[in-house]
Write a structure and sequence with these properties.
The chain is mainly alpha-helical and about 350 residues long. The chain is built from 17 helices and 4 strands. About 65% of the residues lie in helices and about 5% in strands. It binds iron/sulfur cluster (SF4) (2 copies).
């Protein structure tokens, strides 16, 4: 039996809970999945156009000519990191894969503004990963949670991988970066990446199959343990003034937020989530039954509802694309004859 003094507070909470369920949770629920589907569709279209672009050169110009979609450079994170270093050191925009650099800057900006939201709102790999564990949960009734002593060291793996990439890029001088990206391998790095998937080696195919299989059972297996790009976004998010905040005065300790969190964060126990693992997915906010008890906010007052996060991500992403186009830093300028020379033999090109 609750004490008499607690009864009005409980009644008030139940009232708030009913009104919240009717007013807020509805349409907001569909925002993030809609963004994920739109971005996945965009990437599929980019992939399709890029295959047609490559086929034109492989066929010696016999198939229809297609313009190279610059968005394919979003799949070249190491080239983007090299270009970022080159830009910082020389103040010059790179000529090869400039769109990749702009996309990297945009995704880092999104992560600083809205936590690691690139991973949960945009990344196609993150989307597929999320669908896989949801299918697994539906099929088997639950997902596995690895024991802490396995989970914590495994989570470190993505930072180790990121560290290796940062070390490799960091040890290159800007003339070396320029020479690499302007060289044959750098110019067709996107075709090499396509070839990796088109001519999957047995080892790569088995690794991919294991990743997919594990993703059914463990939530976001790839993203949580192995993705160095996500690790970079998580480190950027540590500089974010925005975070999930819980109002302990309003919270009724139902733990629904913690149960909904795909990053397995103890949202119901903390006042503010500072973890680099928080992807700003807002799933916790959407399931919270008490209006105002949980929110993504900058400081204590300025809360960011899901529509604002979606709008902010769209402004940053399209802003970067438009800036790239208007400023001439969007298309990679490789002469036609060089593509005719390099693309049909891209598979034979060894890493310098
Ligand atoms: S559920 Fe909440 S705490 Fe968990 S990752 Fe999403 S936004 Fe962050
Ligand atoms: S913050 Fe979490 S524990 Fe508190 S009411 Fe909301 S969902 Fe329940």
């Amino acid at each position: 039996m609750p004490l008499a003094a607690e009864q009005p507070a409980i009644r008030r909470t139940v009232k708030v809970k009913k009104s919240f369920t009717r007013r807020a949770a509805g349409p907001a629920r569909y925002l993030r999945p809609s963004c994920q589907i739109a971005f996945l569709a965009l990437n599929l279209w980019i992939g399709f156009e890029f295959v047609r672009f490559v086929h034109y050169y492989e066929s010696g110009g016999a198939s229809p000519r297609v313009t190279r979609p610059p968005g394919v450079e979003g799949w070249l994170p190491i080239a983007a990191l090299m270009n970022l270093k080159y830009l910082i050191q020389t103040a010059e925009w790179p000529a090869v894969h400039p769109a990749g650099l702009l996309l990297l800057i945009a995704f880092l900006a999104v992560s600083v503004a809205f936590r690691k939201s690139f991973c949960s709102w945009l990344c196609p790999v993150g989307t597929l990963s999320e669908w896989l564990w949801k299918i697994g949960k539906e099929a088997f009734g639950r997902n596995w949670k690895l024991p802490r002593w396995v989970d914590i060291p495994l989570r470190g793996l993505k930072y180790i991988l990121l560290g290796l990439f940062l070390y490799a890029v960091g040890s290159m001088t800007s003339p070396a970066i320029h020479a690499f990206l302007k060289g044959p391998y750098g110019q067709v790095a996107d075709v090499k990446m396509l070839d990796f998937f088109r001519h999957l080696s047995l080892t790569a195919a088995i690794t991919l199959a294991v990743m997919v299989a594990l993703s059914f059972f463990v939530q976001n297996f790839w993203c949580r343990y192995l993705c160095p790009y996500g690790a970079l976004m998580g480190l950027a998010a540590l500089f974010s003034p925005a975070r999930i905040r819980r109002d302990a005065g309003l919270c009724i300790d139902c733990a629904k937020c913690a149960k909904a969190c795909p990053s397995l964060l103890p949202v119901d126990k903390l006042v503010a989530i500072r973890s680099a693992e928080c992807t700003g997915c807002l799933d916790c906010v959407l399931v919270c039954p008490v209006e105002g008890a949980l929110k993504l906010s900058v400081g204590r007052r300025r809360s960011m509802p899901p529509w604002l996060v979606a709008a902010g991500i769209a402004v940053v992403f399209f802003g970067a694309c438009i800036y790239g186009r208007l400023s001439g830093h969007w298309h990679t300028l490789v002469p036609e004859e060089v593509y005719f020379q390099l693309i049909p033999h891209a598979r034979e090109l060894a890493h310098p």
